[in-house]
Amino acid sequence: xxxxxxxxxxxxxxxxxxxxxxxxxxxxxxxxxxxxxxxxxxxxxxxxxxxxxxxxxxxxxxxxxxxxxxxxxxxxxxxxxxxxxxxxxxxxxxxxxxxxxxxxxxxxxxxxxxxxxxxxxxxxxxxxxxxxxxxxxxxxxxxxxxxxxxxxxxxxxxxxxxxxxxxxxxxxxxxxxxxxxxxxxxxxxxxxxxxxxxxxxxxxxxxxxxxxxxxxxxxxxxxxxxxxxxxxxxxxxxxxxxxxxxxxxxxxxxxxxxxxxxxxxxxxxxxxxxxxxxxxxxxxxxxxxxxxxxxxxxxxxxxxxxxxxxxxxxxxxxxxxxxxxxxxxxxxxxxxxxxxxxxxxxxxxxxxxxxxxxxxxxxxxxxxxxxxxxxxxxxxxxxxxxxxxxxxxxxxxxxxxxxxxxxxxxxxxxxxxxxxxxxxxxxxxxxxxxxxxxxxxxxxxxxxxxxxxxxxxxxxxxxxxxxx
Length: 468
Ligand code: AMP
Ligand code: ZN
Fold this sequence. Notes:
There is one protein chain. The protein has about 475 residues and is an alpha/beta fold. It contains 16 helices and 16 strands. A 5-stranded parallel β-sheet has the order 5-4-3-10-11, with helices on both faces. It is elongated.
């Protein structure tokens, strides 16, 4: 398996710490609002990464945090507290909105076939771990107390900017849009623990050796990752905006604390942009999965849209391009549905397609290339049973529900009196209905009727009957 590693800025052979078991950490959402489809692009691609690792034979132990405390609206330590802002907006407590939006995020993941990580930890549940790490950092002189807050001192590291070489532009304290914190020794120092912040109405506070307070944003991922996955992490993932300062700070504090290198591979997903720039929650205007559904798009269409391009390339979202993905998805599903499950699976013949699919994944998760394997199977000179066997296998990674509803059709498939074009129209109608495009569904029903067939909806799908 070859993966691009942001740390070394090159595609590298992936060698996990323990040769069969991979540890993988994902920065989870800040649950003060719905996830937008940009956030979900990152989670889809990370899901594909986990499933690709499984496909090539690794067992993956994956953990994700849920940021329900501590993330201020700028990625530095300034601005508003995102959770507090969300709670005020909705007249609820921080924990209420955290629960509501965590559940909403989980539902979005289900709709998009994103596997919920094995370990999911809300940041508010690991306060003791952060305190213990911060104590060590203070003892080792990596941290200092200034005016009530604890800061990490970046000048104590040999190399702080390991994930980026654009030093000057990136220094938080030197950016014009960010207010300067006079209590810091170096502009890039960051807060590990706040006891004194401008948020006097901060809802969640905990006792600590330094007084009542709450953790900084970055410490949660270090704490949760080390607690759940150990001192050596194989892969850390996130959207590209997490590279700096979040991941840079995670490395600084984790390695300062552990005294050895921590995470070997950094996997960053490029942004989903709108035609006017980056899609972001804080801008207030964003697209959600539910909104796409309301507009008649199956969430699988969005998943396919994401898989069609490489995770390291920016992707511009428009409804025109989503429509193209929708049409490709419908065609694909129709083709799969027209495959008859006949013959015995030809294992030997299937090998070359599996190898081809695997190669695409091993090539830095080249999902668009992996999709071509699907089309190759559809065209291949192999029997229906083998095609279905391969598509089912590929779908363990692609997660496009390629074979869903296949069973319910057998009744019609077996009915050889029904012509292929009628079957295809019935399939198209079914997809139109799934997409809540009832207009189109009615037109298709009329077309089927005009060809002398009647379509009857059943509990599991539909049935086609020859008209009188
Ligand atoms: P947040 O909830 O803001 O912490 O973001 C959750 C995840 O979504 C993080 O991994 C971000 O890096 C990622 N992310 C944020 N905006 C985008 C975007 N426009 N496209 C892709 N990923 C994003
Ligand atoms: Zn994180």
